[in-house]
Design brief:
alpha+beta, Immunoglobulin-like, 10-stranded antiparallel beta sheet, 22 strands, 17% helix
Length: 349
């Protein structure tokens, strides 16, 4: 094969690779089966979480539990429990009155791995009732309705169906037949320079910013002025207040360039539409926060004040736009304050 042809093929492959990496992230969706909800991220890491029964009230001492499992033949399930408690204790997990597993708990957090976790997950999928006890005291009774369907979804999504590694859809195939985990995308972050805070916006700039974002009225009524955060020697991130509710505060992210008093504004660019944005060209963040040490911008929207539903996104500034590095969601407002990861990327410098 000639050198020119080899060079041409290499250039074509490079272009195709660049196109693939430039594609917008696609976070996973959530599925609900009776009293369980499940989701998987782009690396096929799946997590199923228990919900309060439909129409049930919020208990005095809620107990939440879930099962997570990485993709790949070597990964085993992990079961976790979370509740508001202090101190150390030993929890027992009973299915239909029979103890299947035990685990130590510290300040309300407990987890099971290895054979115990696998045995408990299989028993949950087959059982009718579940109890979690601390000594002789019952502290929780998570519903098992829908757990088998959720675990079957996990088996299928991770390519375990028909193998000995499946939780529900078991078969004769060896663990080695399980599909490997997809590669993790990489996001290169820009280093934020140290230095003085950007100069405050002049009155004329505030007027121009209100008109540009359509948030003039909200800016007047906001409890605090726009936040300014340095991105580079010539660029500043401006988080413009644009409305508030009981527990959600919206902001429009704008990039300012130029000298103080005569700065120009344009909307920040994202590779995945954030927060409550209805228009990709007019991004809207919720409860936004900025961490210059990691170049990370976060949006966190609660579905209700209890925080048991909603969605969040974390972005890293790459010098040109904000790139999605993690997304999580909980679509059911039914007692699950732990949200499921639907997208993840590895940050490099």
């Amino acid at each position: 094969m000639g050198a020119k042809r080899i060079f041409g093929l290499a250039a074509m492959l490079s272009a195709l690779t660049g196109t693939a990496w430039a594609q917008a992230p696609r976070p996973g969706t959530l599925e609900s089966y009776k009293d369980w909800t499940i989701g998987c991220d782009n690396r096929d890491r799946c997590e199923a979480v228990s919900l309060l029964p439909e129409g049930g009230g919020w208990p005095d001492a809620p107990v939440m539990m879930g099962i997570r499992r990485d993709a790949g033949a070597a990964a085993d399930p992990e079961i976790w429990v979370s509740r508001d408690a202090k101190g150390r204790e030993t929890l027992s997990f009973l299915i239909d009155g029979r103890t299947i597993a035990t685990a130590g708990s510290v300040d309300g957090e407990a987890s099971l791995e290895g054979p115990q976790a696998s045995a408990l997950a299989i028993a949950m999928a087959r059982g009718g009732t579940m109890e979690i006890r601390s000594g002789v005291k019952r502290i929780g009774q998570p519903s098992l309705a829908g757990s088998a369907a959720a675990f079957r979804y996990m088996d299928a999504r991770q390519g375990r169906a028909g193998t000995q590694a499946a939780l529900v859809a078991t078969g004769a195939l060896a663990r080695g037949a399980v599909r490997p985990a997809p590669a993790s995308p990489e996001v290169r972050r820009a280093i934020i320079p140290n230095g003085a805070e950007p100069p405050a916006l002049w009155r004329e700039e505030l007027t121009a910013l209100g008109k540009f974002t359509g948030c003039a009225d909200e800016m007047k009524n906001a409890a605090s002025p726009p936040e300014l955060h340095r991105l580079s020697r010539t660029e500043t991130l401006v988080l413009v207040p644009c409305g508030a509710g009981a527990y959600n505060f919206t902001a429009v992210p704008v990039i300012a360039t130029g000298i103080a008093g005569r700065r120009a504004f344009h909307f920040a660019s994202f590779d995945y539409q954030p927060g409550w944005s209805e228009d990709a060209n007019h991004p809207m963040l919720v409860n936004a926060s900025w961490a210059p040490q990691t170049s990370t911008l976060q949006s966190y929207a609660k579905g209700r004040g209890l925080g048991d539903c909603g969605g969040s996104e974390s972005y890293v500034w790459d010098g040109t736009r904000f790139r999605l590095t993690e997304a999580s969601a909980m679509g059911e407002c039914r007692g699950a304050w732990h949200w499921i990861t639907t997208w993840s990327a590895r940050v490099v410098e």
